[in-house]
Amino acid sequence: MTKIAFIFPGQGSQSVGMGAELVASDENSKQFYDCADEVLQLPLSDYMLNGPQETLTLTYHAQPALLTTGVMIANKLIAAGITPHYTAGHSLGEYSAFVISDVLTFEDAVQTVHKRGVYMDEAVPAGLGAMAAILALDGDQLNAICEQVSSTGEVVQVANFNCPGQIVISGTKQGVDEACKRAKEAGAKRALPLVVSGPFHSVLMQQVADNLAVSIKTLDVKAPKIPVVSNVTSEILTTPEVIRQEMVAQVTSSVQWEQNVQKLIAEGVTVFIECGPGKVLSGLVKKIDRNVQTYCVSDEASFAQVVEASKEWTQWV
């Protein structure tokens, strides 16, 4: 039996024109863009379709924009008869997974990630935080380096375990710079500063987590109808209470993406469909296991490709 996972990208994958073809050709798809505008009382769909890029990239625009596009694409796939057995998302993308798994309504999710973006924008003054990608260094070595640097008074920690040979660190600018230097001395191939608006997935985001905890108290959170894999623990999320905890913990915890994908493969998933702009997650999945099939759906051509490929997948659940 072919088991399918829908996976959803996080912040950084946004691009002007995202979802434009699918929205233009399908009124059911367009309703998600219209709904996001109405819920947020913002011209979000205009930013998504027409830009400018710098406006779309603002974290409180990028987060609801990516969620809206991902959910729209996933719903279009489901309407075509392609139903996931599991869902997962990278950081922000986990909220798209929650919507598709019926944990949150689309409206509640759009509002929540917009607030999440506002809280993140306000959390750390510009220039004080940083993130960097460390290539070709063992995770245990990098964790040890981060702990050594943090013991000197600066904050730095692993933010994302993306795939073998690619780990992202986050913290104060001085902490990240020092960790990059020590990582290269320890044998890292490269240490690449990332263009980001804050030190995401670090303890410097604790105020964001605290604010989000208050916001989600009023959310109607349901048990998943489709299993969702946790960013924080790489386990299957099962209850509303655990999911509320996940939403808060995820803000300051490392994203265990490599472990998430390994968990899905262990559950029997052989087809990964990335719903949203870009091909970041599909590329990471292939670096984790080249034997699985990956697809990226972002326009009419890629949607048609997946629908055609699905004719060979048998025994749907």
In brief, what are we looking at here?
This protein folds into 2 domains: 3-123 and 204-310, Malonyl-Coenzyme A Acyl Carrier Protein, domain 2, CATH 3.40.366.10; 129-196, Malonyl-CoA ACP transacylase, ACP-binding (Alpha-Beta Plaits), CATH 3.30.70. The chain is built from 14 helices and 10 strands.
Task: Itemize the secondary structure elements and their pairings.
Blueprint: E1 3-8, H1 20-25, H2 27-40, H3 44-50, H4 53-57, H5 59-79, E2 86-89, H6 93-100, H7 106-123, E3 129-135, H8 139-150, E4 156-163, E5 166-172, H9 173-185, E6 190-193, H10 206-215, E7 228-229, E8 236-237, H11 240-252, H12 257-266, E9 269-275, H13 280-288, E10 293-297, H14 300-310
Helix pairs in contact: 2-5, 2-7, 5-6, 5-7, 7-10, 8-9, 10-11
The total tally of domains equals 2
**What is the CATH-assigned architecture of the largest domain?**
3-Layer(aba) Sandwich
Number of helical regions? 14
**Which residues sit in consecutive blocks of at least 5 with pLDDT less than 50?**
none
Quick check: average pLDDT? Answer: 95
CATH-assigned homologous superfamily of the largest domain:
Malonyl-Coenzyme A Acyl Carrier Protein, domain 2
Provide the succession of SSEs: EHHHHHEHHEHEEHEHEEHHEHEH
Q: What fraction strand?
A: 15-25%
Enter the CATH topology name of the largest domain: Malonyl-Coenzyme A Acyl Carrier Protein, domain 2
What are the main properties of this structure?
317 residues, alpha/beta, Malonyl-Coenzyme A Acyl Carrier Protein, domain 2, Alpha-Beta Plaits, 2 domains, four-stranded parallel beta sheet, four-stranded antiparallel beta sheet, 14 helices, 10 strands, 50% helix, 16% strand, globular
